[in-house]
Each structure stands twice: as C-alpha cells, then as structure tokens.
Design a protein that fits this description.
Shape: elongated
Number of helices: 0
Number of strands: 11
Distance between the termini: 40 Å
Structural class: mainly beta
Radius of gyration: 14 Å
Order of helices and strands: EEEEEEEEEEE
Length: about 120
C-alpha cells in the first residue's frame, strides 16, 4: 500500500501564493507518476498538474504560468507551488499517485487539502 498525505492548504487573498505538499509513504516503489487534482463545489474533479518519474511535467491550461509541480525524491514528496492565485482556484486539492508494476496498475489518492482564495 501507498499512503499519500497532503498539506499546505489554507485561506489566501487573490494574488497570493501557497505551496502544497504530498508526502508518500509505504510501497512507493509502485509509484511512477504523481498528479494534483482539484474539485470545486458542484464541479467535477479536474487535473491540475502532473509530474512523471523522469520529471516531465504537464499543466492544465488554467494554471499554466502560475503553478509549478516539483518533487524531492529524498523526501518522497511532491510539491505544487501556486502563485497569482485567483478565486476560481478555490477547491479541495488532491494528490494522486499511479504506477504499473508487473502488469498490475496501482492508483492511490490522498485525503485532500482545502484551498480557499478570497477576492
């Protein structure tokens, strides 16, 4: 099993910044890619950013140029630096880790952390 724990959420004014962390523990050898998702009230969960084992990154158009995903392999932690935050970034942010090992797919989610951006 893999456990993912997000932290760093909170209340911030528009234009401010937050850094989210996703700390992984357990059978982390199963993980290859990590993604950040978010879900606003009444909306579907959407992909925000991903980072692969080879450090390739991808971003949703809505956050390009404002958010940066990175990782610290020594700490088994993935970060999401969020700058120039907007009220529409308000959501619960989730960390997701996926991998394939010996033909078996693995998919893990964290519990989520609330981000609220006030106007």
């Amino acid at each position: 099993q893999v456990q993912l724990v997000e932290s760093g959420g909170g209340l911030v004014q528009a234009g401010g910044s937050l850094r989210l962390s996703c700390a992984a523990s357990g059978s982390i050898f199963k993980i290859s890619d990590v993604g950040w998702y978010r879900q606003a009230p009444g909306k579907q969960r959407e992909l925000v950013a991903t980072i692969t084992k080879a450090d390739y990154t991808n971003y949703a158009d809505s956050v390009k140029g404002r958010f940066t995903v990175s990782k610290d392999n020594a700490k088994n932690t993935v970060y999401l630096q969020m700058n120039s935050l907007k009220p529409e970034d308000t959501a619960v942010y989730y960390c997701n880790a996926t991998g394939v090992l010996f033909g078996r797919n693995y998919n893990y989610w964290g519990q989520g952390t609330q981000v609220t951006v006030s106007s």
